[in-house]
Design goal:
Helix content is 74%, strand content 3%. It is mainly α. The protein starts with a helix and ends with a helix.
Length: 382
Amino acid sequence: MMKLLIAAMCLASAAAVPAFKPSKTFLKTSRSEAFNSALEIRGGAAPAPATTMAVTPASSATKVSKGGAAGGFDVGLGLYFVFWYLGNYYYNIVNKRCLLAAGGKTGFPMTISTLQLGVGVIYALFLWIMPDARAAPSITLEDVVSMLPVGFCAAGAHSASVFALGAGAVSFTQIVKAAEPAFAAVLSTFVYGKQISKAKWLSLIPVIGGVCLASVKELDFAWSALIAACVANLFAAFKGNENKKLMETEGIKNRLGTVGNQFAVTTILAFIFSVPVMILKEGSQWGEFVEMFKTNTDISRNLLLSGIYFYGYNELATLTIKKTSAITQSVANTAKRVIVIVGVAIVMGESLDPMKLLGCGIGIGGVFLYSIIDSIVKAPVV
């Protein structure tokens, strides 16, 4: 289901996203460190990166170590990027439309965010049940307990993001969410006792400044969106650190089997954590929501699609991480956010004030700099 839907999206797309080629200097000097940095920005764990390219000394001809390449271009990787971008782009559109149809921030944001996770749970279970689709993890009860903090933070990050999208413009929410590295840096230093380089701290200045600049004309009507997006960043930062701790636990990576299984288990736990909150907050209106779901196709269709897109683009983003370097991932993630902010604003008729665009550019540029700055500083002069 999922793969067929995304394949149809790909065929309908007129553009393809090429695979970026990281410089040899970055790959040789600080590949591992940069890879981990890119994953921390996404709030994920850091599996061992796969070597994407190998240069033969004799001919200096570039070869792609994994199949699907032609003339230096990895077709499979290009499709991963297309799927990832399309999934993220359409998720923001259908999610916003579903929230608007259900009443916006005063409607059912918690119910919608919970059911989106529920769609992902159904898809994950389907893959485990189907023969030859995906081997189920062999985790223990102790493993599940150790994953609870990650699941809780994933639930908080997702629901807060949905609240933010319901309360304000998609473009504004995405701009604020671009400041996630600032939250991650503060938490890593003061809560988890990790050292952040001075270069990284300095690169946060344009991130925060850009977000503030872009928010100047939004704050009058989007305070709730600002707060919700900041809460989402906070949960995402905690999730990234907890994920890293989890993957350092002896044997759990092998018992999970794949990164896809890790994301599936996290989604299931996030759904379980979200259900009680949904009942407490909007449970008394459940009958009203069910009736709206049955009669309003803008809610039912967009809710199902948003759940599929959310789960799908997150898995596809993980696949691109496994096949590329951190520098490529950072460039791609930066380009994706720009496309989402501008593209969704145009489709949804949202404001693209010049000051907002300037702040967006500065902030997202700072995010990209944050992700590669250590590699730049430590790279030898050639």
